[in-house]
User: What shape does this take?
Amino acid sequence: MMNRESESTETVVHINRVAKVVKGGKNFSFSAVVVTGDGEGKVGYGTGKAREVPPAIQKASEQAKRYMIRVPMVGGTVPHLVWGRWGATRVLLRPAAPGTGVIAGGGVRAVMESAGIQDVLTKVIGSRNPFNVVRATFDALGQLMTIEQVRKLRGVDFPVEDDVEPTTDEVVDTALENEIVEAGIVVKDDDEEGEPS
Assistant: This one.
């Protein structure tokens, strides 16, 4: 029987030394955040704290394996644009064309690579605390839905001939149009600018 746990990859995102001030001085301990995934859509994260670094990483790794989620993907990228939020941290995940790669850093990159996402554009806004960045990334991943999931949720069934997945370019264009509308930006055509008033 194949050991599924041996196939998962673990990434230590951050190790932080913390101190508790007591009557006799300071008690130092270490907190760690670890991301684990199988590279095929399952990913989880965990945090651990201990007096030494190895036990802290082990605790975080065990927690990450217990609480793994399934990430919906479309052709190696995320299905649609999504914002994740945790505390003062906001994380943007945007679909990308094939060959783009993982445009991310720190905790976001660790989560994307562990989940097996190959092409994605990301941006972290606000606090860059590694613990909050990882949590905000998972908040974003939890909001992702494929077309099939939306159809099932809404109880809508389309004819077979219309059952076509949108291309990545169409998904990106639609997401950009929605962002422009939400921001209230007025886009003028070249023809309009050339017309005399």
Notes: The radius of gyration is 21 Å. The mean pLDDT is 83. Strands lie at 9-22, 25-37, 42-50, 68-70, 82-86, 89-95, 102-103, 120-126. The longest strand covers residues 9-22.
